[in-house]
Q: What sequence folds into this?
């Protein structure tokens, strides 16, 4: 597939260095998965890791969760730690939507329980550190507070659907893995581990329910956008984030877009707040829109009618969403990230093909 100014691969590779320098320094959860079975042959260990990565990724993608940045969410690949230990690593870029971080941790609990092999998983927030210990602070054993200089980088693990705590101060990665291998899953029955696990599961249940709560979004957009988001609802989140990332850029030309229609979408409350309230030097107020054609102006007048108060922002929201799609797709704007671009655009041409959806230009959404 080719885009303006070159292929997607060329664009993604050219931006990989800048993406890696900025995308992994904030609002990122690092997921490290270590098989605990003894595998002396290094080559066979790497082959097994590659197979395990495919299994883990299929498991995560089967969840059907719509991640904030779109695409497939965390994707495991073979990684080598600073200590030279091969394992699997994935990144969860949750941005302004912390629900993604907790969804990833919830999936790690389930994955560690459902896999047919014994694994230990570390969940480390690049800014906050041991996020599980922070969330379950009131249920932690006293020994965790004995040394304030200890970050407990390798003291908290997910294993067999439970939280495993290692009491050794300043424990190294190699020592932590050795200790985990020496103790079977039954060692997780210690009171501190079960209490922390139960507290974490209660929080994750509430977080999951909140993540599923959606805001109904009425919009006025070109007809092709309706077809696109019905086939690829994950692009809704990606387009809104693209609008937020590039809100300081000059708005693209919207005069060429025709055949605007009413539609609705279900989005998270975080996404709605971003789309509705963000302002910049180019977007001076939530109600600002760049130059549009007569068709869109007619919708603007219709939205101002007293009989349709729930639609009063539909044009402004639709225009912002369309601009986000433009930012997401055009090659002359800085790409969001290499992962998101590849995940979103590898199938976008197919998704844009007509699907026979009937959408009225006069029927208002209820």
A:
């Amino acid at each position: 597939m080719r885009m303006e100014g070159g292929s997607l691969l060329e664009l993604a590779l050219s931006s990989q260095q800048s993406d890696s320098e900025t995308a992994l320094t904030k609002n990122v959860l690092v997921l490290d998965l270590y098989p605990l079975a003894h595998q002396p042959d290094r080559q066979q260990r790497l082959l097994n890791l590659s197979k395990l990565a495919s299994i883990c990724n299929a498991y995560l993608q089967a969840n059907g969760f719509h991640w904030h940045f779109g695409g497939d969410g965390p994707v495991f690949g073979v990684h080598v730690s600073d200590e030279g230990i091969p394992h699997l690593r994935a990144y969860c870029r949750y941005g302004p939507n912390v629900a993604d971080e907790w969804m990833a941790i919830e999936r790690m609990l389930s994955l560690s329980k459902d896999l047919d092999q014994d694994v230990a998983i570390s969940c480390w927030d690049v800014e906050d550190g041991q996020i599980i210990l922070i969330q379950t602070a009131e249920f932690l054993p006293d020994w965790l507070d004995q040394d304030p200089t200890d970050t407990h980088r390798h003291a908290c693990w997910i294993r067999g659907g439970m939280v495993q705590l290692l009491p050794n101060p300043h424990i190294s990665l190699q020592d932590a893995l050795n200790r985990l291998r020496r103790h079977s899953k039954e060692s997780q029955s210690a009171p501190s581990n079960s209490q922390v696990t139960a507290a974490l599961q209660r929080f994750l249940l509430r977080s999951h329910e909140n993540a599923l709560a959606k805001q109904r979004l009425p919009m006025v957009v070109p007809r092709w956008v309706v077809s696109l988001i019905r086939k690829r609802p994950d692009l809704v989140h990606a387009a809104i984030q693209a609008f937020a990332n590039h809100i300081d850029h000059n708005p693209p030309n919207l005069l060429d877009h025709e055949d605007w229609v009413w539609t609705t979408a279900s989005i998270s409350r975080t996404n709605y707040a971003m789309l509705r309230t963000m302002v910049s030097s180019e977007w001076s107020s939530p109600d600002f829109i760049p130059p549009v054609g007569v068709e869109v102006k007619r919708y603007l007048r219709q939205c101002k009618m007293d009989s349709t108060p729930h639609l009063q922002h539909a044009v402004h929201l639709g225009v912002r969403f369309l601009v986000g799609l433009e930012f997401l797709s055009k090659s002359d704007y800085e790409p969001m990230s290499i992962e998101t671009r590849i995940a979103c655009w590898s199938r976008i041409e197919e998704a844009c093909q007509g699907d026979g959806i009937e959408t009225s230009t006069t029927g208002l959404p209820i």
Summary: The mean pLDDT is 81. Residues 191-212 form the longest helix (22 residues).
